[in-house]
Target: N-acetyltransferase domain-containing protein
Amino acid sequence: MSVADMAERIAATQAQGLPWLVAEAEDGELFGYAYASRWRVRPAYRHSVEASIYLRQATVGQGLGKLLYRELLQRLTALGLRTVIGGVAQPNPASDALHRALGFKQVALFEQVGRKFGRWLDVAYWQLSLTAS
Model:
């Protein structure tokens, strides 16, 4: 993905009033990012979002994912959103563990719905309720 394409994605997310967070070193080296996007376009689903998080492989297991995700969840809660859904291409034990540690529960596994690097991927869906009512 080009820098221009990524900038466009960030701007579109922020234009919807949703957060896009970036973790970087003091020298500007990018470690990862997390953001939310609308779950569905219909008004009935306006209180639900899909969260995405991406980390450089070298940073996995150092707690950065939890920091980014927790901050994202706090901001989504402050926006009055109700439900966060996370999709995880399988197998991905680290991401599954991250979602579980943050209180998400796995609610679905869709088989062979994605294609990447010449192979079909299953995707697990995780759900977290941000509010009690």
Q: What stands out?
A: The chain is about 30% helix and 40% strand. The first strand starts at residue 20 and ends at 24. The beta strands are 20-24, 30-38, 48-55, 83-90, 105-116, 119-129.
